[in-house]
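Project standup — Tuesday

K.O.: blocked on the structure for the chain from last sprint. Re-posting the sequence here as requested.
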Amino acid sequence: MKKRIPKHLFIALHAALLALGAATACAQSVAASAPVALAAVAESAANPYGFEALWSGSDLVAKLVLLLLFIMSAGSWYILVVKVLEQSKMAKQARAAQAFWSANTVADGAQALDADSPFRLLADAAHNAVQKQEGLMGHIPVNDWLAMAIQRAVDRINSKAQGGLAFLATVGSISPFVGLFGTVWGIYHALTAIGISGQASIDKVAGPVGEALIMTAIGLAVAVPAVLAYNWLVRRNKAVMDEVRAFGSDLHAVVLGTIKA
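H.V.: unblocked you, prediction finished:
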């Protein structure tokens, strides 16, 4: 008499066979996809169109263009940070200069201001202007001499406040053209490669064209922050210089009042 296999043992054996088949299929799929993944990693590591390949494969002219754009960008950000700190300091000194009007004399008020304050420069200029002038300067009326001294001090402060902004304006103006020069140079390389190879294959054209497009992008990336920083700093400079000119006008009236008194 034949013995029958228990039903639960048969079900367990069937499940084990199914699991073994699924594991085998999964292993075959992983083994088949491994070469593809390794090839993708190797292709990514040896990408001939990235920034590293751009620098290593560029000639002297292209490297000079990249260095020039880098210097422009670094200089723009440096000037932006320095000018923001300077303008913030001048705004703080403008608030501190309000204590000047509580002094008994112009000399005492000037001594209470910071040595590097532009308002201290205005006060010293006004104080020296009312002193007795010798030679040809003695023929100038005190009112005119005082107005000229204050105006010269204001112009000196404004010239210092404008320092560095010309560099930002220059970078914002010419960096797109520097990038465009890199673009033209890259296109020239592409045409040269086509002429040498005698055929317009994608491997001969893609590298130089990619170099050209990267140059254009870098030029725009340098120009846009420089233009925005220039406009923002000019507006902040105007606000600070308004405070300086207002202080100079009030100082002119105060000094004339003390002379007449």
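K.O.: great, moving the ticket to review. Confidence is low (pLDDT under 50) at residues 15-20, 30-45. The first helix runs from residue 7 to 45.
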